[in-house]
Amino acid sequence: MPLAKIKVTPAKYNPFISDFRHYYHIHIFEAKAEMWETGAKLSPWDKDADGGYGAITIPRRREKYDGGNWITAPKIGDVLFYKDCLGSECVSHEAVHMATNYLRFKNQLLLTDQIDDNEEKLAYCIGSCTRQIVDNLYKLRIL
What we know:
The protein is an alpha+beta fold. The protein contains 3 helices and 6 strands.
């Protein structure tokens, strides 16, 4: 059972998007093994060779045909975090995956239809830069 569950709407605070229906559930786990067990139920991805991921974004899209229209379920994915991986680098890395998946879904970002190496490179760069900026803001007592 997750330690916490949070609902995140990617369009919130976004001046370019006015559709606030779609969201992710963020799950925080006390133990990595429990997170991996949940991840295995939601995704075919395996743990990394170095012992396993500390966080993972699992996009999903569910649609049904109703009255001549395709209707998309409001939940568009889950993000799993191990509680010791809640630093700015890991959080921003997963946020990139959430954002790119959401924008692909809305046809407002033209990347591939899967999380790929280019997106991973972007996520790691953003995570690293974010971590360095935030760490220094704390050191300078600005935050």
